[in-house]
């Protein structure tokens, strides 16, 4: 563990007290579902050698992340959950966690990290596809079923699966390669709070567009202010 000049540090979690703090943090970030990442599951992941870390501001845990190894032959790791407390969001801390996760993965012989995210959340699409250079590999309909937390309650849990090639992140597509785009709202969370029916309309519209384009052989080449950028598959 190394603390930088801002007082931030990322630490591998080893004690049950640390694990319980991380579990409670995830509960706070997602608004009230203690079944989302229970302490006993985090403990099992950590004890069996997987990636379980906390992000600290001085001595207070303000973020956490957990990932587990994929099939042995694939040299991959699946990042299941990463969260930062509301008062510390939009400060680049998510990127700090991803950079740490990337370095840890290299040290453990992993060359690729996968994870899922809600395709309607534009800021996550921008971060995952444009900033990190991950690429969408699959659209998953209602992947986790009904989710009883403050972020997802009342919606269907569609997700996109992305793959991050750690040694060679993907570059944005050339403009002439973009065939079409799929728009998403700039702030779906506000729409969910204020107009849940409209949020569901967005869900179904984006799902239909994604699945149709993937079925026709197109792939997601990136993301920008227009939305998801679809290019021809190879």
Helical coverage, percent range: 25-40%
Give the count of helical stretches. Answer: 6
Structural class: alpha+beta
Mean pLDDT: 91
- N- and C-termini, Cα separation: 43 Å
The sequence of SSEs as H and E is EHHEEEHEHEEEHHEE
Shape: globular
How much of the sequence is in beta strands?
25-35%
- Counting DSSP E segments of at least 2 residues, the number of strands comes to 10
What is Rg?
A: 18 Å
Low-confidence regions: none
Main sheet characteristics = 7 strands, mixed
The strand order across the widest sheet is 1-2-3-4-5-7-6
Structural account:
The protein has 234 residues and is an alpha+beta fold. Helix content is 32%, strand content 29%. The chain is built from six helices and ten strands; from the N terminus they run E-H-H-E-E-E-H-E-H-E-E-E-H-H-E-E. A seven-stranded mixed β-sheet has the order 1-2-3-4-5-7-6, sandwiched between helices. Strands 8-10-9 form a three-stranded antiparallel β-sheet. Helix 1 packs across helix 2 and helix 5 (188-194) packs across helix 6. It is globular. The N and C termini lie far apart (43 Å).
Strand and helix layout:
Elements (H helix, E strand, L loop, with lengths): L7 E5 L3 H15 L8 H9 L3 E7 L2 E10 L6 E9 L8 H15 L4 E6 L4 H10 L3 E6 L18 E7 L12 E5 L5 H7 L1 H20 L2 E7 L2 E6 L2
Parallel strand pairs: 4-5
Antiparallel strand pairs: 1-2, 2-3, 3-4, 5-7, 6-7, 8-10, 9-10
Helix pairs in contact: 1-2, 5-6
